[in-house]
Write a structure and sequence with these properties.
This protein has 342 residues and is α+β, with helices and mostly antiparallel strands. It has seven helices and 14 strands. The radius of gyration is 21 Å and the shape is globular.
Length: 342
């Protein structure tokens, strides 16, 4: 892997959880990624040749987002945050990007008023107390790509906290739909319907082509890493190759609401990013979904948003136990309490 990121730094274990899925059967289709890989001399082994590498770069990206989020202060701009992420990643060995870091503050987290792609790029919008933010970055490290989205706020933001809590159901819905081999376009519509029931707006539809996800793959690392409009040219080359390859075979590397995604889940690694909006506040996560010929699963269940949900579950259980003990306390004083909490 690249130099500078040892996995133990900042408390992150790059090896990830060992669940026996580092070597998975039924992944032949994943090697089809890319003719771009073939052209770069990587052969046709594809993205799943070593899932630990992708888990490592995904954790690296989230570590970057968490580190920069912890340093955000009132008055900092989106450009300041994006620059800080580039510096943090470069100091740990990142030399190439699928796309450079984005940062969105305030109502820009919900893409309010976004009409053209240039509006996604970081601006001079300044952070204020209580303001939500989203940090999004897609580094290439050790020849593997990740694309992550981290939602937070400078002080309490009850609306964004609720959005993040409700995103949990979307993560479960997406995984279930892909495992059932539902067409990707149909899963997209399922997400739309859930958002409507929850009372939210679909904000990933603001992305080019309205995508909720896109494929990520291996990228040949070189000394020179040119970019076009903030996107790495080698990553774009691989995506374009997939698009051409998929067009001939009836699938697309862009998971959208359009007919091009009206096909069963295609094997590979997909960066999935459901994005909810409500009254000028947005929230999302973005992480890699592993799709095989017969199954699907999230690459890593030890990510910030997943840990947040688990902590909420633990707090809920603790609260229930405390209330139960308070109730049994009265009974105990009368000699009839059991002292057992549910």
């Amino acid at each position: 892997m690249g130099e500078g990121w040892d996995g133990g730094r900042d408390g992150f274990d790059v090896r990830g959880r060992r669940d026996g899925r580092g070597e998975v059967e039924g992944l032949d289709g994943l090697g089809e990624v890319g003719e771009a890989d073939e052209a770069d001399g990587l052969g046709r082994r594809g993205a799943l040749d070593g899932l630990d590498g992708f888990r490592e770069v995904q954790r690296l990206a989230y570590a970057c987002a968490e580190a920069v989020a912890a340093e955000l202060r009132p008055g900092m701009t989106e450009r300041d945050a994006a620059h800080a992420m580039r510096v943090w990643a470069r100091e740990r060995g990142v030399r190439d990007w699928f796309h450079l870091p984005f940062a969105w503050f305030g109502d820009r987290t919900a893409f309010t008023g976004f009409k053209v792609p240039l509006q996604f790029f970081p601006t001079g919008r300044r952070l204020e107390p209580g303001m939500p933010f989203i940090l999004d970055l897609a580094p290439v490290y050790g020849g593997r790509t990740a694309d992550v989205g981290y939602s937070g706020s400078l002080g309490p933001s009850p609306v964004q906290e609720r959005l993040m809590a409700d995103l949990r159901e979307h993560r479960e819905l997406i995984l279930r739909g892909v495992r059932e081999r539902r067409p990707l376009r149909t899963v997209y519509q399922d997400v739309d319907h859930l958002m409507v029931r929850q009372g939210y707006a679909n904000r990933h539809r603001a992305y080019p082509f309205g995508v909720i996800a896109h494929k990520v793959d291996r990228v040949r690392e070189r000394r020179w890493s040119p970019r076009i409009a903030g996107f790495g040219t080698r990553s774009l080359k691989g995506l374009a190759s997939d698009a051409l390859h998929g067009h001939r075979e009836g699938w697309s590397p862009l998971w959208s609401p359009h007919r091009m995604s009206d096909h069963p889940p295609y094997p590979g690694l997909w960066a999935v990013e459901p994005h909810l909006g409500f009254r000028g506040t947005g929230a999302k996560f973005e992480e890699i979904l592993v799709v095989t010929e017969t199954d699907a699963y999230w690459l890593d269940d030890d990510l910030p948003h997943v840990r947040r949900w688990r902590e909420t579950d633990a707090d809920t259980r603790t609260g229930s136990m405390s209330r139960s003990r308070m109730g049994t306390g009265t009974s105990t004083e009368s000699g009839s309490g059991t002292g057992v909490a549910a």
